[in-house]
Amino acid sequence: xxxxxSIAVLKKELSYRSEQEIIDFCVTLIKFNRENKELLNYLLxxxxxxxxxxxxxxxxxSANFLDINFRSYHILxxxxxxxxxxxxxxxxxxxxxxxxxxxxxxxxxxxxSCLPKLKNYPSIENxxxxxxxxxxxxxxxxxxxxxxxxxxxxxxLKIKL
Length: 161
Fold this sequence. Notes:
By secondary structure, the chain is mostly helical. It has a domain at 49-160. 80% of the residues lie in helices and 0% in strands. It contains 8 helices and no strands. Helix 4 runs parallel beside helix 6 (97-114) and helix 6 (97-114) packs antiparallel against helix 7 (122-141). The longest helix has 22 residues, at 73-94. It is globular and about 60 Å long.
């Protein structure tokens, strides 16, 4: 089997193609995979109004936390994992550190408001702790002027733990 070509090679090949061929390629890609369809939708439509899209994601995350079923620990853990997976999917689409921080902070705030005693749920507490570590590593890479706001938000979350 052939080795997968680099992005540079693919870009070069695309430059030789007509506009209609590129559109056909895009349609084929979005038929192939749902993630490709979501990414293309974001790039074409939602990227223009990033703040509106970000607020819609926050609303979706909050609504999912309201729908959590508390019947059993297993179902609760599974629901939180599902919301975290959804959050990470959106983070992958947006691909901006500040927006990633915003979504992770929102996820953790919703998690704490939903489950104020995280210590009673060890695996869910681990999700929370790993998110805190992830946020701290992102903040470390940001411009120093932005550190203060995000570090305060992270510290507030740590206090609530």
